Predict the structure.
Amino acid sequence: MEEVRLGDVTVTRVKEYYGPVDMTPEQFLPTVAEDAWRDDAAWHAPHFLDPQTNIVNSAVQSWLLRSEGRNILVDTGVGNHKERPYSPVWSHLRTDFLGGLARAGVAPEDVDLVINTHLHVDHVGWNTRLDGRSWVPTFPNATYLMPRDDYDFWNPENGHQPLLGRGNQNVFEDSVAPVHRAGQVHLWEGGHRIDANLRLDAAPGHTPGSSVLTLVSGTDRAVLVGDLLHSPVQLVDPDHNSCFCEDPVEARATRRRILGWAADHNALVVPAHLGGHGAAEVERSGNAFAIKGWAPFTPYARPEPETEEGHERHQGYEGHAHPVAHEGQVTTA
């Protein structure tokens, strides 16, 4: 496993998928100039961009935090067996995500808290599992923390027209509503203190209810930013939005604010979808930012599916090492 200890909190990366997402960088981040991909190629290839196909690579992963005696799972990926007619990359997966969680020493019954930073298709899938013909909570003893603004926005009964269009079709019905019906959801607004080490705060823009999880323990700092950013180019220039940001103006302002806090507090920035080492430190550089180093996890290795049948498109790419900023903190087994 890939773990780092930050103060009194242990953070473990649990992988679900790593590979292409059938989009070019120009489609994914439309405001980034073409020469930026070429000039900063060392940042992007191969973890975030396959130079042979010019297709974006993405990691889908969860972060398991052990804090004050509780097991806390941040985002739950895509999930297995989900019908995603307008997101074919994520449709009917059969990955060994729960096996990865088990290798981290945690069974579904051991999870005390699930945090959905927002309610996009690739952040809530393992909220539920298929039991016969019914979707049931995967983590039966957990409280699921969901931002109320996202819950209301994605609830089909409210009739919102998201930028993602039909890309989130079925997600509320099979991955959100069953947990709510089971009485396991806590809807929060503005901010939510989890324990002495961890706090959730609203970070809107990508979606109305997007949130970040801030870790402050001892002298260590980190911020798990969900989909606030997807690529190293956004670490340097926070004005670039992905094509999935519901409110581009608000997303830019939020990204700049959170990166500013991380730079000023020497905090790790931990996005949901970064492959490679999975986290970075930034510093201010004029009106923008610079990457100080990649840390602290080992390079991203492809997780294997449960079976080979029907998964040719899910063959990911092996990564290459970046410099490690936090020597001695990484545990692998």
